[in-house]
Amino acid sequence: MHYKLKSLTATYGEKITIILMSTFGCLIGLATITYSQNEDMGIFMSEAAIIANGQALYSQIYEIKDPLFLYVAAIATTLLGIQGPFLLDAFMISISTPLSYLASRKLGFSNIPATTAAVVFTGTLSGAYFQSFRSGIAALVLVLACFLCASYKNWILLGILSILVVGFKMSYALFLMGPLLLIFATNNRAQAALRFFSSAIFTGVLFIGILARRNELSGYLEMVRANFEYRSNYPAIFGLPEGVGGHIALVNSFGSNFWILLVLIFFQIWITLKLNHKDNNLVRVSLILLSASVLVTLMISAMWPHHLQVLCLLAWSSTLIFLEATANHLKFPEVIISYAVIPILITLQLTGWRIPSVYTNLFAKASSPSWQIPPEVNYINSNKSQFQGVQHYARLGPNDDLGLAAFLDDNFILVCRNYAQVGFESDAKITEIRDCIKKMPEVIFVSSGFNTLIRPTGNYEELKRVVNKVLSEDFICQEIDARPGASVCIRVKE
To answer: Do residues 192 and 173 make contact, with C-beta atoms less than 8 angstroms apart?
Structure first.
């Protein structure tokens, strides 16, 4: 059964709605900017600066994140400074509202469900689970763009965007099943599939070629393998049971609820079966497939609260299906009550949604971040004589660097690619780290968390033992007073 698209020419009312949705998105985007150097954000700041300084991803700076996230962050850093990646996230939040509205309308949903779903999507994405400078934000907005391309039956652009989604966040590849299903709604499915796969294959080959040209392909494949191993051990890391039960418990770890989400998907299926005679039934099936893929993705990867940002897709699909069904079966005033109650239940109860309450000095907040200079940089500036001729450095520690590399002079070159240690390094990785710091760097920055981090599983204690042995033999380490536990280690000259 084929689905009916709305007219591709926007009506006057739709144009006004798009303007309002864009304004709403901009306000939320600006209000949710959170400049942070803590945890992973600081590491990403450093890695973006290192790549922007000309070093190759994976081969010279290793990270278990997908390449497009860090490439784009490096470009944003080059163009806009340290705050560039944060401003990029604000832009993606801003366009998510009109993009969600347009995708919903072109998929055949009426104006009020489309408008409500757009607000729900942006509110969920920017709500309780939001953190700036995360790899999933751009990928989630690109998934919306994929649905929009499918609604326009632009299969070539859909192929390109699909590869971009995978390039930003490989684990989100499951979300592409929804828009791909809409290929079956076309009159010429073979031609549509040929256009999509030709475009996707060409873009994928180009992507791999760029990685190979930059000497990053082998490191990329290493990253993919490490990610699969890391994700498969998520329940064990949290001390949860193995198997499906452990992955269900993982979904419930940060405020979400697997069973409520599952019931929500069953309600979507029930409504779709009930409205089986409707022309846009296949669209509902694609949205159900999207919701199911969200739940599976959460079971695989919901290790930290920001991973629950993917619930914005489930909230979007649920709002569209429920409100469209409500509009077809209820009359005023029941329909108005339903339009108010359903989004509230979906967002507040399931996703912790909240609209940011700070709407003052938005532009000042966006354009004038206040950064904390890492103590290691202050130490260098206060002891410049010790660093005369120093060019090569390494870093030891978890995600507590406060964006160190982003504040170092460009003449400091990272030589040991494992900039941050997660605590689950293999024996081969430990050997690689040991051999590199023994031969290459003239200075090593040791974070305060390096010796205090505790991992109940993995080989982290062995890593600390091996590394500290090299530091004691080949380096003189000076603790930084402003950051207890952190030290700067300078190689002993022969």
So the answer is: no
